[in-house]
């Protein structure tokens, strides 16, 4: 294992319009998201499965403490952005973890976003009814 000697391990995760800036360091204090414990910010067992998955895949559970700033989007896209950011931060900690994270599809950014409206149409992008003539 080629672990890094730096103190902080940073990663940025994105999903739809959400962005999560993750900063991890060795310790057992836990992770805070927007100054709240992660268990409080993302409550529930199914959500915990999502943000703990990068740690479980790499066998680094309860080894890191950190801070996450997340903004934009809804709670689901924020949750996936946090998991993406944690994965990237773990990769800066130890480059050999990249194969495990890549195999479990944790380093791939999910780029699906809402299609923007098109000029000249009255409704949303997929409705495609032209606007009334003046």
Give an account of the 3D structure.
By secondary structure, the protein is of the alpha+beta class. It has a single domain (9-103), classed as 2-Layer Sandwich (Ribosomal Protein S5, domain 2), CATH 3.30.230.10. 31% of the residues lie in helices and 22% in strands. The protein has helices spanning 38-41, 45-57, 75-93, 98-103; strands spanning 9-15, 18-26, 31-33, 36-37, 64-71. A 5-stranded mixed β-sheet has the order 1-2-5-3-4. A hairpin with a 2-residue loop joins strand 3 and strand 4. Helix 2 runs parallel beside helix 3 (75-93).
Under the CATH scheme, the architecture is 2-Layer Sandwich
Characterize the biggest β-sheet.
5 strands, mixed
What is the element string, with H for helices and E for strands? EEEEHHEHH
Query: What is the C-alpha radius of gyration, as a whole number of Å?
Result: 18 Å
Percent in helix: 25-40%
Strand content: 15-25%
Low-confidence stretches: none
Terminal-residue CA separation: 69 Å
Number of strands: 5
The overall number of domains is: 1
CATH topology term:
Ribosomal Protein S5, domain 2
């Amino acid at each position: 294992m080629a672990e890094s000697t730096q103190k902080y391990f940073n990663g940025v995760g994105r999903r739809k319009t959400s962005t999560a800036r993750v900063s991890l360091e060795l310790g057992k204090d836990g992770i805070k998201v927007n100054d709240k414990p992660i268990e409080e910010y993302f409550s529930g067992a199914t959500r915990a499965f999502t943000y703990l998955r990068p740690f479980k895949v790499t066998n680094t559970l309860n080894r890191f403490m950190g801070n996450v700033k997340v903004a934009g989007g809804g709670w689901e896209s924020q949750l996936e952005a946090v998991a993406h950011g944690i994965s990237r931060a773990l990769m800066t900690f130890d480059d050999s973890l990249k194969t495990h994270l890549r195999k479990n599809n944790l380093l791939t950014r999910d780029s699906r976003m809402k299609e923007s409206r098109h000029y000249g149409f009255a409704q949303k992008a997929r409705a495609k009814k032209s606007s009334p003539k003046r």
